[in-house]
UniProtKB/TrEMBL annotation:
Presence of keyword Mitochondrion: no
InterPro entries: HTH-type_LysR_regulators, LysR_HTH_N, LysR_subst-bd, WH-like_DNA-bd_sf, WH_DNA-bd_sf
PROSITE patterns attached to this UniProt entry: HTH_LYSR
Pfam families: HTH_1 (PF00126), LysR_substrate (PF03466)
Any one GO cellular component localisation term in the record: cytosol
Keywords from the UniProt entry: DNA-binding, Transcription, Transcription regulation
Gene3D superfamilies, sorted: 3.40.190.290, Winged helix-like DNA-binding domain superfamily/Winged helix DNA-binding domain
CDD domains: PBP2_LTTR_substrate
Family according to the record: Belongs to the LysR transcriptional regulatory family.
GO molecular function: DNA binding; DNA-binding transcription factor activity
Protein name per its UniProtKB record: LysR family transcriptional regulator
Domain HTH lysR-type: 1-58
Length: 302
């Protein structure tokens, strides 16, 4: 069984389309199909459900995808370790992030690259519920996201404890208040992260606990679009506090505390616990552990 054939299997699992998988691997579609048939002959079982188009993997094929991902991840770990022994730490880290963790991952990348300047970062925005799957499928190396029960089964280190705050344009009369209740915020035109994000689910829970259910005038998966709406003075928003003060969202807006008993949420670096962690990931974990405290983002944010 050839490694490149395993790469074809993983590409097909990712693209769910023969033509796109072939293009991703730099081969023709007939070449990819021929390689898959060779694999099936070698394994003695069909791995792909074929009709006029890709219809998924057989149960045996699904297991093969898992093995191929694991073996290719081990191959990458081996190559990274050999490269590190030869010329020091280098390569590319793939970091999945929640929308409002963008500022934190930028600071982490800068701090890490000060120590290891030849390391490159791919920052990948992934929905919170998809992050465990992306980690387990080796699509990302680590993630910076909010820590919930699902993520606690992975290796994790809390980088900050955040509180939700309201961001109110100065033109709104309510901007003069020292603190706000959820019911107060619900009366404003709101620009919020989309309902698919962890942050929005937490925000909606706050509104629901107060007995209100506002409909935002704008919602987006992109933090930048939410902040631009606030900067334009069109709407207010609610976001995790320690990330907000790290983003130049609007000089003409105020960050106001929200009155709430349960308003604290942990942002954490998470990774897949493996016996042979890729050297880049291992270095990232140790760097963050040594330089980030629970109550402050320390050197990464200050």
């Amino acid at each position: 069984m050839l490694l490149r054939h395993m790469e074809y299997v993983v590409a097909l699992a990712q693209e769910r389309h023969f033509g796109r998988a072939a293009a991703l691997c730099g081969v023709t579609q007939p070449g990819l199909s021929s390689a898959l048939k060779t694999l099936e002959a070698e394994l003695g079982t069909p791995i792909v459900q074929r009709h006029q188009r890709f219809d998924g993997f057989t149960p045996e094929g699904e297991r093969l995808v898992e093995w191929c991902r694991r073996i290719l991840a081990d191959k990458r770990a081996m190559l990274d370790e050999m490269a590190t022994m030869r010329s020091g730490l280098s390569g590319r880290l793939r970091i999945g992030v929640a929308p409002s963790a963008s500022a934190t991952v930028t600071r982490v990348a800068k701090y890490f690259r000060d120590l290891y300047p030849t390391v490159l970062f791919d920052v990948i925005h992934v929905r919170h519920e998809r992050l465990p799957t992306e980690l387990q499928d080796f699509q990302i190396d680590a993630a910076i996201t909010f820590l919930d029960e699902e993520n606690r089964r992975f290796g994790h280190h809390i980088v900050s404890r955040q509180c939700l705050s309201a961001i109110i344009p100065d033109s709104f009369d309510i901007a003069e208040r020292a603190s706000l209740a959820w019911a107060d915020i619900a009366q404003l035109p709101l620009s919020l992260l989309s309902r698919q994000t962890y942050e929005r689910r937490v925000i909606d829970a706050g509104f629901q606990a107060a007995g209100v259910n506002p409909e935002p005038v704008l919602q987006s998966e992109m933090l930048s679009e939410v902040l631009l709406s606030v900067a334009a003075g069109d709407a207010a928003t609610v976001l995790p506090m320690s990330n907000i003060k790290d983003v130049p969202f609007a000089p003409s807006a105020k960050m106001i505390e929200i009155d709430s008993e349960e308003n604290s949420h942990d942002l954490a670096l998470i990774w897949l616990n493996l016996s042979n962690i890729v050297p880049l990931v291992s270095a990232l974990i140790e760097t963050v552990k040594q330089n980030v405290s629970v109550d402050a983002v320390a050197d990464l944010i200050d």
